[in-house]
Amino acid sequence: MQLTLSVLRCPDSVVPEQRRVPGGDYVLGRGADASWVLPDPDRLLSKHHCVLEFRGGGWQVRDLSTNGTFVNHATTPVGRDQVKMLEDGDRLRLGAYEIEVRVEQSGAQPSA
């Protein structure tokens, strides 16, 4: 099951990107060793802000941050070292970023 991440909102000085995540753990943050280094001129992100993990046949987000990782319109963060299962179309909010999550089922056949 592959994950595609698309930046919908970001700092003005940053060009929105899209990334494909084939599997494994995928760290988002401002740290140079993150899987996806997100430019953060206002330093709202942690070096390792959150990690996307494939577990039990699905994707989940684990919040590693100080300022919080939010899913969709939640007003409270996932919580440090807590997880939330992700669904197709969910939106992650971290710092000045909003990132759409698309979950692609492997072997899915296009509809006729």
Automatic annotation (TrEMBL):
Residues 26-76 form the FHA domain. It comes from the Bacteria. Gene3D superfamilies: 2.60.200.20. Transmembrane segments: none annotated. InterPro entries: Cell_Proc_Reg/RNA_Proc, FHA_dom, SMAD_FHA_dom_sf. This is FHA domain-containing protein.
